[in-house]
Design a protein that fits this description.
The complex is a heterodimer of chains A (107) and B (558). Chain A has 107 residues and is mainly β. Helix content of chain A is 0%, strand content 57%. Chain A has one domain. Chain A is globular and about 40 Å long. The two termini of chain A are 13 Å apart. Chain B is of the alpha+beta class and 558 residues long. Chain B has two domains: 182 residues, no CATH class; 257 residues, monomeric porin ompg (Porin, Beta Barrel). Chain B is built from 13 helices and 14 strands. Chain B is elongated. The two termini of chain B are 22 Å apart. The chains are: A mainly beta (107), B alpha+beta (558). Chains A and B meet through strand 3 and strand 7 of A and helix 3, helix 8 and helix 9 of B.
């Protein structure tokens, strides 16, 4: 909805990864007009974002939760260009729910 | 399927009016108490997030912090309660699935999933006079099954039995008024439900060819010239007699979800869940696509933002004004009614999309538990049987069942059992041990894996050792052969032989997608419990695997 609600905020065209602390991500894709786009590069639970778009964008995550998993904390992984920050306090994905959605915001 | 491993909770549970939202309030120890049992599905579906918000607001209030929606500590919970955003769609599906009466649809899909399971034990054990099961398999019906079997495998007396099996958890939910369809692990009953009720299955078998009888005193000779007084006689009291009760407890190997061993085993199973998870994602996208054609989802971003911001302000104000959560629930309900309009609820495309999602979630739930079984280790089932065969002493059987599913290569099951007599008379020439047995069965789906009718082949072998011949009760009123002298009540005789009883069985089971199974078996044995000499027998049965107790009593979808 806005920078205030985003899970991750970064500068436009930033290259970075974000992580979630629980569950297993089996697929990640941008959500475009309520439909998933091409899959995003994925390494373990680290999703790579190339060239962050201006404004709001959504990443849809296919998640498999294990028994005993807590809510998953969304955090920034490696930033290769630009400035990127996770919300403070960090936002979470509710355990058990799939798909999970991560809101990005480019400024 | 609840500790709670609430991977997916298809919230079908609360019956309107069955719970009171005012009975419980938010507490630090139980922050979801104010919403968990609310009769409104949308409140239950978003209960986690409502509790998160109420907790954050109460903490902020205690710390005299900013009590407006601008407080960043409220952002995570407020985001999840934004039902106009993609984050909120999971809750919309969960909440509306019940309203759209999808129970029967889900029950139907569960039945189809269960069709391919080779491990479900729906018939009575090998010692019944009517059974198609020489070997007991490790699994049970998820909810309820009714089986009718004829033909014995180890017994001399051929009969017909009707067996009703159910899961203790489902029975408990039915009796207590909780929704019988909720087979997902839920928080509500915690340890007791997860460790006691869920893994426990019980069944009762009625021998339809036995007459129930009662011994009664006679009042004098009515005819004939016999000089001996007959003082007692057995009179029939009804057709069909309880011949056995079985309790089965399914146990997984102990595991610690935090251990590296479990994590490694689970990681190997995740691949098998990729497809069903992707299906849920696709279904969720379809629901969002339908929603986007309705107000307020179709409104401009500015209008939606205004709507959501106003609602979020109200939610925070409500939570701040009442720390119990009651006002927050009322405020969220108001927001829900504003967004999920009757226009949306009456859209057949929406109902169809939610229905598809609910079905795929049910399939995923089954797959998830199968994956957990695989990751944790092999399944053991402990079984206790109480048997009361015709004119024989009652017995108690303890059985250990081990099954290993090789997936496409079939399933192998081993049984080890010991049977003891319920009571041994003081002057008996036999001990408490009735017999010990080991047996094995191989099951494999041979045709129609992707079709509505499947066939399963089962090959089984059984060895039983008896230290003494079988014991036959002589009923009251029986006279000695060739005489008119009545035998005393309570007399027992050895019949048959001690030693080994071997049985082999080949069985074909036709499994229909509607939950109907028809097993047809042929068996050979070197003797039976009471008679010497080889016996070739045939067994046939029919069983119905109900997937919904709710549907059973309401007539929906069954």
């Amino acid at each position: 909805m806005s920078q205030a609600t985003a899970d991750i905020v970064g500068t436009k065209a930033a290259n970075f990864t974000f992580t979630i602390s629980a569950a297993t991500v089996t697929n990640a894709a941008f959500l475009l007009n309520n439909q998933p786009g091409a899959s995003l590069p994925l390494s373990g639970n680290e999703v790579t974002i190339q060239k962050l778009a201006a404004g709001e964008s959504w990443v849809q995550l296919d998640l498999v939760w294990a028994t005993g998993d807590p809510n998953a904390v969304i955090d920034v992984g490696t930033v290769t260009s630009g400035t990127v920050n996770a919300a403070n306090p960090k936002h979470t994905l509710d355990r058990g729910k799939t798909p999970g959605f991560v809101e990005l915001f480019g400024i | 399927m609840k500790k709670c491993v609430a991977i997916i909770c298809i919230a079908l549970s609360a019956t309107p009016g069955s719970a009171s939202s005012t009975a419980s309030v938010w507490t630090e120890k139980d922050p979801e108490a104010f919403c968990r049992h609310d009769p409104r599905q949308e409140i239950v579906a978003y209960c986690d997030d409502l509790a998160q918000l109420q907790t954050a607001v109460n903490a902020a209030k205690a710390a005299s912090e900013n009590l407006t929606s601008a407080n960043s500590n409220f952002a995570d919970a407020l985001n999840k309660l934004d039902i106009t955003s993609p984050r909120g769609v999971d809750g919309i599906i969960t909440a509306t699935a019940a309203t759209l009466a999808l129970k029967s649809v889900i029950a139907s899909v569960l039945k189809d999933v269960g069709q391919s399971r080779p491990d479900q034990q729906l018939s009575p054990g090998a010692t019944a006079s009517g059974t198609t099961s020489l070997v007991s398999t490790a699994g049970s019906a998820e909810l309820l099954s009714l089986a009718l079997d004829t033909g014995a495998v180890t017994q001399s007396v051929n009969g017909t039995t009707a067996t009703l099996s159910t899961n203790a958890d489902q029975l408990f939910r039915l009796v207590t008024g909780s929704d019988p369809d909720c087979t997902v692990t839920c928080n509500s009953l915690g340890w007791f439900e997860n460790r006691v009720l869920n893994p426990l299955n019980i069944s009762a078998s009625l021998d339809l060819s036995q007459q129930g009888s009662t011994t009664t005193a006679t009042s004098g000779q009515a005819s004939g010239t016999s000089p001996t007084q007959v003082t007692q006689a057995a009179i029939p009291t009804g057709a069909g007699k309880l011949s056995g009760i079985t309790a089965r407890y399914e146990a997984l190997n102990r595991f610690d979800p935090r251990s590296d061993k479990f994590k490694s085993a689970w990681a190997q199973q995740v691949t098998s869940l990729k497809k069903p998870v992707a299906a849920i994602t696709a279904d969720t996208d379809a629901v969002m696509a339908v929603l986007s054609s309705h107000v307020p989802f179709s409104d401009s971003d500015a209008d939606k933002t205004a709507l959501v911001r106003a609602a979020q302000s109200k939610l925070v104000r409500a939570a701040a004004s009442d720390g119990t959560g009651k006002n927050l629930v009322a405020s969220f309900e108001s927001f829900w009614q504003e967004v999920i309009t009757s226009d949306i609820m009456s859209d057949p495309k929406f109902a169809s999309a939610v229905s598809k999602t609910a079905q795929d979630k049910a399939i995923y739930r089954q797959a998830w538990f199968n994956a957990l079984d695989q990751a944790v280790g092999n399944l053991f089932t402990f079984e206790y049987d109480y048997n009361h065969p015709l004119n024989q002493p009652e017995t108690h059987d303890l059985k250990l069942i081990f099954g290993h599913n090789f997936q496409t290569m079939g399933m192998l099951t081993f049984n080890g059992a010991v049977s003891i007599y319920g009571s041994v008379p003081a002057e008996a020439k036999y001990g408490s041990l009735h017999y010990g047995q080991i047996s094995s069965e191989y099951d494999r789906t041979i045709t129609g894996k992707d079709k509505s009718v499947q066939t399963q082949l089962s090959l089984a072998g059984y060895w039983q050792y008896q230290p003494n011949p079988s014991v036959l009760n002589i009923p009251a009123g029986t006279v000695a052969p060739g005489t008119s002298i009545p035998l005393p009540n309570g007399t027992q005789e050895f019949v048959g032989t001690a030693g080994s009883l071997w049985v082999t069985q080949a069985k074909l089971t036709i499994k229909g997608s509607g939950g109907i199974n028809i097993p047809i078996g042929v068996s050979w044995s070197n003797k039976t419990d009471l008679l010497q000499g080889n016996k070739v027998g045939a067994q046939v049965g029919i069983s119905y695997n109900f997937s919904s107790l709710g549907g059973l009593f309401t007539g929906g979808g069954q």
